[in-house]
Amino acid sequence: MSRGHSAGAVCSTLPELQGAASLTQGVIHKVFKVFPMASCDYSHVTFVNICDDAFYFQETPEMGEDLTEDGFAKSPAEPEIRWVRSKSNQFLHFHESQFEVKNLDETELKKPDCQFNIQNYNDMETDGGQKGRPIMLYASIGPVKMVVCCKQDGISSEKIGNMG
């Protein structure tokens, strides 16, 4: 069983059968449906479960189903470098691993912690229409890239690896 995105969550053994339930950190999770997918090397995988912010997959034998490639992919265009300004005319600023919104002068706006990279993604299903276009917003502070993570409890940052 392989694990997708992770941020240090530790979970107990997950179910290997469709419809099985598991207890992970006091929360019962149930797998309701098998979703056939393929990894980047086209081996078949099945989505198994989510625990905290980790996605779990299991390699499966071919299921006799044709897999259709979706259009979700990083755009070949270079990321745009922009400021992020609020309706109240304040700017997003990355300082000591925290995002802050504050008034900034012209000199401060030239600093890298006030300039954000916007990486566009292509998605055939949204096509930039009503739902918008998927993007990744991140700050580059020296060699370190910090992605902006929006969650129900607020905005946070996480270090990311090579985006190439």
TrEMBL record:
Domain of life: Eukaryota
Organism: Notothenia coriiceps (black rockcod)
Gene this protein is translated from: LOC104945633
UniProt lineage: Eukaryota, Metazoa, Chordata, Craniata, Vertebrata
Official protein name in the record: Uncharacterized protein isoform X2
